[in-house]
Specification:
The structure holds 2 protein chains of 2 kinds. Chain A is of the alpha/beta class. Chain A contains 21 helices and 24 strands. The chains are: A alpha/beta, B alpha+beta.
Chain lengths: 648, 377
């Protein structure tokens, strides 16, 4: 089940956390929503885009998170409620604007939703966006269940308008991607008209220009807003204590960790001994509430993900109030009761509570554990690799073959997208990709490497970059490389969509987030315009790609751009279709023997190729083979054959 | 080659075998790779690029043809020679010698296109014309001094491909490819290392049967002092020449100490001091100057009249009956003309060949290049 237009106020609907957040925004009357795709945040904009309607709700996938925040801020300045959405590291991208926006303040309610990824389930970092709230001095809310995700999002707009500043709502993967029942509220009937009132004095928050200067004055004003938020938070229903009046141990927790804490206490049968203070407003902390709850006990355990954010705030408050509340013993991240890296779970929480209270955690019976192992053994071992028909496999294959031929130790600077897999799982990228950082950083690093020739470095340098990443953050780095005459090959792996996060549109696609026709910004034209030499190729043409790469490696100093265009195998236009029907000719397949030694299944490793242990021959998995035909080009015995598939 | 010679002395030792890993550790990484291409076109794991052999992907087979065919992996050369040649013909310095001649192509045009006497070109053209072979694996000029190995079946095409190459071509890789075509009788023009690789292939019973090595009908060997590495050579040459305009190169006898680079309008000269650092690492340890594993070997001549006269002639060592038959056919058909071998020429050649063997067995760094270089043709 998911959200649709037919649902009404009072309906109880099973919603994913991200849908609940989107619903809360709709109920608040949001009129502009902008974001950049990134797991686990993408479904919020996707859900909102289904409710987009001219004059009522505008939704966009922006080129990056900073632009998304600016887009939303403009709406707020013009009197429309707005939100921007991003994953944790997106806040880093937006943070420069956020610093100034927090200083200038907002008008109509504006919220920043960030979805963090503790444990880096689909990230290459486990950055903690909560620290931005404190750094930028803006209020922070953290929902702990699905209903609350909706209510809190709706209320965040109200809070934003009350303090005239942006409010941050922080979710985590287990919140955003899990589902639960949510009772829907009403959608507001009225829409506001957009107008930016800007004919007043700088000091006029309603009609003046929106700037962060005069800085000191505005900064003081911003801090007043934070104090006001703290006062409001004292009475917030999102903060709740449950448990005995005088608990032996007080758990302070937020977000998904609240459920872990509840489960831990329940499993230990310690409800009579442990109280749980669940905080929904996690910055600034409401001091009076904390003082009251801290007074009830001497032992406090803070359960949160990932860094000791709450823990440090609570300790500061406790230190400030030590004369009134007495000396406390704190457990959490700093003392090692809970790990400071990776996700938490009920077991970790239970172990921590058990150790503090001296309770042995319940032991699973050996029969149960045996069964558990048996079931785990049933799951086939799968390596993380590119999908059948993925153009990236073909691209990296050619890169590998070109670099090995060149022989000067060249390497690939990786970037963010499915093709990052080449850096994370070396076999998937045929051991070519050697760096992986932030979006666009592959190009920036390459630009830097490309200037080290005068220090004796003669390794060919290749930056790879997906189409969406190109628009997001690679352009400034590429312009730098051109301007500095860095000696690099820039490969745009253009698979025609923001494929990794689910085919969201980007400036290279001719429709926008709402499905309307949109002008296209052409990568090749843009690269040509900044002065790079541009070659466009098809990654499925292995030999041509490889020869082009070797030619570019030998070529003149400077930036050489190769755009490898081929749609993602899972893209809407390709999914479920096969260009070729593939077949292995058993008579020609050499198998294990000297002469090929299973190149196709051992090195190329497309999941669509199987190794038949009985026949000792390669075989096509017809179910998952995408029919791209690339493997026919790598088989030295020409045993893999392509037959043009009938058009359906 | 030092290792191989040692191997010959200890025949009791177990036969050393290996796969790509051993090939990489013992040949490619150590600089012993000759770029001959023996390990290429057998599988997708190695390739020839420029004048180098590269590993594209890793193969984990414990034993492979790549290692077995490589001219720089251990082999019992003494045993090999006794299998291919008449014991009575074997010499310590030059391998099998059935006959020794000074010859040149009768047609002036053939000579002009060739490095010196044009004997190799004339013989390969003849072999194709007479149907002794139906495919000739040769080397063509290529671009920017990067020669290309090719297989030709037309005598006219073979006649166009004279001239020495100073950078190696992956001839054996091309031979491996030719073996997969329907050629019935294959002839190869090979440097010493390439000829050795092909000889090793003939001795691999399984691989030989599978790939049809019995279709190999002729190996014409080239005298070789050493070859040059493409990248450093072209870096030097580019300073004074336009690589695209180079039509040939030569090194006159050692007293000139010069590499001549011929272009249509001019000749550029480079001191050998500048050029010798470009000699392939692998050539410095090569003990074979005259391509001892061939049917006949051809190189530049030395004559009492001096270099200007000598440069139009070749020296030919006939090693097998097949080689002798071809040379005699060439004489009968008037394709080659011969002159008397000056007294002492064979002894000088033996001395030069022995010098190379000695240099190859010197510790690294001391082995100077011989006074002959390039691949005669």
């Amino acid at each position: 089940m998911s959200m649709d237009r037919g649902q009404r106020e009072g309906d109880e609907v099973l919603l994913m956390g991200n849908e609940a957040i989107a619903r809360g925004a709709l109920e608040a009357g949001v009129q502009v929503a902008a974001g950049y795709p990134g797991t686990p945040s993408s479904e919020i904009i996707e859900t909102l885009s289904r409710f987009a309607e001219t004059g009522k709700l505008y939704v966009e996938w922006s080129t990056n998170e900073k632009v998304a925040m600016e887009t939303a801020a403009a709406a707020s300045f013009a009197g429309l409620r707005s939100l921007c959405v991003m994953k944790q590291n997106g806040v880093n991208v937006a943070s420069d604007f956020l610093l100034h926006l927090a200083g200038s303040g907002t008008r109509a309610g504006m919220i920043l939703i960030t979805c963090d990824d503790p444990g880096a389930l689909s990230s290459v970092n486990e950055g903690e966006s909560r620290h931005f709230a404190r750094l930028m001095e803006i209020p922070l809310l953290e929902p702990a269940d699905f209903q609350e995700a909706k209510e809190m999002t709706r209320w965040a707009f109200t809070l934003s308008e009350e303090i005239r500043n942006i409010v941050m709502v922080r979710s985590v993967t287990r919140m955003s991607h899990a589902s639960g029942n949510v009772i829907l509220g009403a959608l507001p009937p009225a829409v506001r008209k957009a107008e930016f009132l800007c004919d007043g004095a700088v000091s006029d928050p309603e009609r003046g220009p929106v700037i962060s200067a005069p800085v000191i004055e505005k900064h003081r004003l911003q801090q007043e807003k934070i104090r006001k938020a703290a006062a409001i938070f004292e009475k917030s229903p999102f903060n709740a204590y449950s448990g005995p009046e005088r608990p032996e141990l007080l758990i302070i927790t937020s977000s998904a960790c609240r459920l872990y804490s509840l489960e831990a206490v329940s499993l230990l049968d310690a409800e009579d001994r442990v109280g749980i203070l669940k905080l929904g407003t996690t910055w600034p902390l409401p001091p009076a509430l904390l003082k009251r709850v801290l007074s009830t006990t001497e032992k406090i355990l803070i359960v949160e993900e990932v860094l000791p954010f709450l823990e440090e705030q609570v300790k500061i408050l406790a230190a400030e109030q030590v004369r009134e509340i007495g000396v406390k013993t704190f457990y959490g991240k700093n003392d090692g009761a809970l790990p400071m890296a990776g996700e938490l779970n009920p077991d970790l929480a239970m172990a921590a509570v058990g150790r503090i209270l001296g309770i042995d955690p319940p032991v699973l019976s050996s029969a149960y554990r045996k069964k558990l192992r048996a079931f785990a053994g049933l799951a086939p071992r799968r390596e993380q690799t590119f999908c059948p028909g993925c153009p990236h496999r073909a691209s990296y294959w050619s890169i590998r073959e070109a670099l090995q031929r060149d022989g000067r130790g060249g390497f690939v600077c990786g970037d963010i997208g499915c093709y990052a897999m080449a850096s994370l799982f070396p076999a998937a990228g045929f051991y070519t990709a050697k760096t992986l950082h932030a979006m666009g950083s592959g190009t920036g690093l390459a630009s830097g490497f490309g200037k080290l020739g005068s220090f004796g470095m003669d390794q060919p340098i290749i930056a790879v970059c997906g189409d969406s990443t190109f628009y997001h953050a690679a352009i400034p780095a590429l312009i730098n490389a051109v301007h500095q005459n860095a000696n690099i090959i820039f490969i745009a792996l253009d698979n025609n969509g923001t494929a990794m996060t689910g085919f969201q549109s980007h400036p290279g696609i001719d429709i926008n987030a709402m499905g309307d026709a949109s002008p296209v910004v052409d990568i090749a034209a843009l690269c040509g315009a900044i002065g790079a030499k541009v070659v466009v190729g098809d990654p499925f043409a292995l030999q041509e790609t490889r020869e082009t790469l070797n030619r570019l490696m030998e070529g003149q100093q400077g930036v050489k751009v190769l755009i490898l265009k081929q749609s993602c195998a899972l893209s809407p236009e390709k999914k479920g279709t096969k260009r070729y029907l593939m077949q292995v000719d058993d008579a020609l397949c050499r198998g294990d023997a000297c002469g090929c030694n299973r190149l196709c299944t051992r090195i190329f490793r497309c999941p669509g190729l199987l190794w038949n242990r009985e026949k000792k021959k390669a075989q096509i998995d017809e179910v998952i083979c995408a029919g791209c035909g690339v493997c026919a080009g790598i088989c030295p015995a020409e045993a893999i054959r392509c037959e043009e598939a009938a058009k359906s | 080659m030092r290792e191989t010679e040692r191997k010959a002395d200890s025949s009791e030792e177990e036969k050393v075998q290996g796969g790509q890993r051993e090939l990489e550790e013992r040949v490619l990484r150590t600089g012993f790779c000759t770029g001959c291409g023996a390990c290429v076109n057998l599988c997708p794991y190695q390739a020839s690029y420029r004048d180098r052999t590269v590993i594209l992907h890793h193969c984990d087979l414990a034993q492979g043809r790549c290692f077995a065919f490589c001219p720089r992996t251990p082999a019992d050369l003494t045993d090999m020679k006794s299998r291919f040649y008449d014991e009575a013909d074997l010499t310590h310095e030059l391998g099998a010698v059935k006959g020794f001649f000074i010859a040149r192509a009768a047609q002036e045009g053939n000579r002009r296109r060739s490095q010196h006497g044009g004997v190799v070109t004339a013989l390969m053209t003849l072999a194709l014309r007479e149907g002794l072979i139906d495919a000739a694996v040769l080397t063509e000029k290529g671009e920017e001094l990067l020669p290309r190995a090719v297989t030709v079946s037309e005598p006219e095409a073979a006649a166009q491909l004279g001239g020495s190459r100073f950078v190696v071509s992956p001839t054996v890789a091309e031979f491996n490819r030719a073996l997969r075509t329907d050629c019935r009788r294959i002839g190869v023009v090979a440097t010493p290392c390439q000829a050795l690789a092909i000889a090793k292939m003939r001795l691999q019973p399984l691989a030989a049967a599978e790939s049809g090595m019995d279709r190999l009908k002729l190996v014409v060997g080239l005298f070789c002092g050493w070859a040059l590495s493409w990248r450093p050579l072209t870096d030097i040459l580019r300073e004074k020449t336009d690589l695209a305009a180079v039509i040939g190169m030569d090194i006159p006898p050692s007293r000139y100490h010069t590499l001549e680079v011929y272009m249509p309008e001019e000749t550029a000269r480079f001191s050998l001091d500048e050029i010798t650092p470009c000699v392939r690492e692998s050539c410095r340890s090569c003990a074979d100057m005259t391509a001892e594993f061939s049917d006949l070997s051809v190189g530049s001549a030395r004559l009492p009249e001096g270099w200007e006269a000598a440069r139009l002639w070749n020296q030919v060592i006939v090693r097998t009956k097949r080689g002798r038959d071809l040379l005699e056919l060439a004489r009968r058909r008037g394709v080659l003309e011969f002159r008397e071998v000056p007294a002492g020429n064979l002894e000088k050649l033996k001395a030069a060949s022995l010098n190379k063997k000695k240099a190859a067995n010197r510790p690294q760094g001391q082995s100077g290049a011989g006074d002959r270089m390039g691949q005669a043709g």
